[in-house]
Predict the structure.
Amino acid sequence: MMHQSNLENTEIAIIKSDSPQEAILEGIRKLGGISKFISRDDQVFLKINLRLPHGFPVNSNFDVAKILIELCKEAGAKKIYIGSFPNKVIDLKTLSDMLDLNNYFESIGAELTFLDDQDKFPLDNITINNNQFKFPKVILNSDKIISINQVSVHPLFKCNLSLINSYSMVPNRYQTIQKIVRAGKDYLLLDQYKKDLISNIMDVFSIKKPNLVINDLFYFLEGAGPYIYSDSEINKTNLIILGEDAVAVDLITLRILNLDPFKSELINESQERGIGISDLNKIKIIGESLDNSVLNVKFCGYKLEEINPQNTTIKSGKFCAGCYNQAYHLLNLMKTHMTKDLKYIRKQSFLIGDKPQEPEYPENVILFGDCAINSTKERDFRRIIIQKQGNIIAEAKSKLKRDKKQISKGKLKEKPNKQILELFGCPPDIIYCVKSLIKYYSKSEVPNLNFYNQLSDTFLTQNKNTTKEDDLLL
Amino acid sequence: MINNAFKTNWLDIINFNSKLNIIEDPKTSEHIVRIPLTPIKIDAYLLNYLLGYFYSEFINDQQNILDLILSDFDIENKVLGLYLSKTQRPGVVESIKSLPKDFIIIKEKDLHDILSLFKKIQTKILEKYRLKISSIRVIKRRGMDLINRLCENLESFSFYEFLQQFLDLIEKLIGQDLFFIYPEPILTKFIKSNLKILNEVKISKIFEFLEELAPDFDNTLLINFNEMLVSLQMKKLKSQKSKLVFNIDRLEELTAPSDENDIDKVIKKVNQKLKPKKLLFFDQTSIFSILKDLVYLSIPLKKEELKLFIQKIIFGYRSFNSIWKMTPKPKIYNTLIRFLIRLFGININFRKLSHWAIPNLIFNLIDTYFGLNSNVLLLISDNKTSNKDVGLIFRIENSSLIKIIPISINNKLSLMELKIKISKDYGFVSGIIKFDKDLLKAFLNIFVFNYHKVKFSSLVRISKMIKDPNLFQIYPELPPYRFLRTKSSIGLLKILLPIFIDKHEF
């Protein structure tokens, strides 16, 4: 099943236009027309980003999907499927109902694949590099795959590349990275989580590679992403990058975003595995020139401290990419959906990673992840010293007599600090974190977060069972 | 060239302005004029004050203006008339002089480089009349005809008709470049950019729609304009032929309140004198400040600026008894009533409306569930009649409203069919928000026009109405709407009020 690249050279189109639809048409025309990619009677699968019942650009631009569906129909495609596995907290039926996607795609001639409905869309067992995956048969059986990837900032990989988009072709439980500590290797120091994640992404990508890859950065989500947070902003770049080879398309995308593609672990891994074209000399650019298209965008900060939610001090120890990713989302969520709550909470410390620094205040200490919890068991902030009240009547009498010697000061007593919230998990789950925060502070203290939670419950409640076994998607 | 009634009134205003310095106590003068282009009669001294303020804040804060009337068709020399207005204070014309038509020759191509033309005119006037003009107001003949047409019929119009005609005139003059000022003032920039966003939506239609939503009201606004007490009486009574009534009077016999304690006494006196059904008191600073903030908003509206503006509006709304006052006092501020409601676990204190948290919540909801870029279809239905629904597509880009597109709605289509149809024609629609006029009417009635009657049951009534799909609906069922639908009215208030109202009483 694993394909080695047999492409000698590849053409990548960089298209600048007034609308994303025009850019797609122009790009495909420049690459040789849709008939170069889609043949008569082909079964086509459009792999889009479908994460949550949120607005653009959390999911792909559906107008771009529409134009591609029209092109596929024009080329004589027999059947057009469209879909993706969404974020683990929601099932596709709910997501489709909340965005009214099924009716929309049906009206334009495509079928939304409810990939999580395994009666309708069964999965096939695939083994790659000794890793077992379940992969939708509908994708395996499709003659052509088109990847429409909405490019936005990404906490782990700087930006959301098409290689990452391919990852959600497998169910969420196969995207989860299990903590496997190898003998003699420091899990945190080597960031084994990220290594395993990259290896998994490449495994999934190599199961079935797309025939046409579109990196849509016409409206690039910058600042914070790929979900919408208070720091998220749209940068209208008017650019779309497309080509046959996903690695080459991603490489050019990184260049356009002013990043060194050879510092990208995903590109390096694909190079090592010999997947795709990562040699710039073998890539022919058509359309706009690469140098003239370079953009300056605002990526997510390297450090969690840069997120800076109100009244929150962040103390980091050594942590892996898994915890970083989840903490990044939780802190951004706090900053966006707890504005009022954080103003009233006043002091909150967020400790993450192995052996984090001591919190500034003993109140409201949030220990994020198993590493932070286990490595701080004996720390000072775990206990507080209180003064035990003496004999009140005797004290009052002494005060009346102004007898300073007689005033008993009360004994000092050490007590466990109860103002600590431990968020278990490796890494912890966001929904569990939100619910734990509400429980810790109480609903009346965090009305903003409570409201956010109530809104999330409208789509979470239906799949409570799946949330425990799966981990949060990228 | 210009309508006689307009001319006579304008000269009367100029005459008053020119004599202002020699009148011993101008405040006592009882000279009445009309606000130019309107049928509204006003005290000349008050108009002088208002013109001076508004002109310098929103149009030009420098002196002396040249008005140019230009032909729409002539090629060799477009000039039909030149009027030089001398102003001591910006906007307050004290003398006007007609200049010969051939004083300056303007050709079509000159209008393409307005900066050079302005400099040329400025230099020429300075040489000849020793007067430096700070701006030119250019009006084309077609614009002049439109103004004349309005002025001719002013007497026969009701106030409602006048407002419709006036708004149409402004839209045509500015939208079609029949009138412009150079250097371009912030006010025309604001109107122009709004017209661009409104696209084909006529301002007069918006006014008509709002007027229809407003219940009957009889409100008097008492404004303290720089130690002048001015009453603005606004009425809408269905029984009356002319739907709207608007009067502006300077209360000469009453002295403006000098301090906070004085305000209540003045309000009492005005209540005794005018016997209004509802009286609201404002100071000019708050009104001018909000107007200034509005006009200086950048268009398309940037999220952060709009947030700040809404914060100010909510702050103003919550500042009852400090920034504004009202008689009769709204019942909802009664401490005993608030205490009794609080026993049920509901805290309603409009003085503690969270002016900073409310806009945050609203914008977060829009951004998250409709998206940073979106097409949102707003449908306004009228269940009581079989009228077609009003449909407006709000095109949002990076959280900024960039265009409003009016569309024709086929009432026979379901919301699902409508969404598919509109998505095909205008791009993917993130959501349809459907309001019925009854809901909007109830909302305006409770929170704007009859605020003094607002009580806890009014809030419950509104939340019940929002839950009724005949009156309010969001399609598809996005999480906020699903949440709204599944909660009881009281449950909804219990969750939302802690966000809307700050918890500290001090």
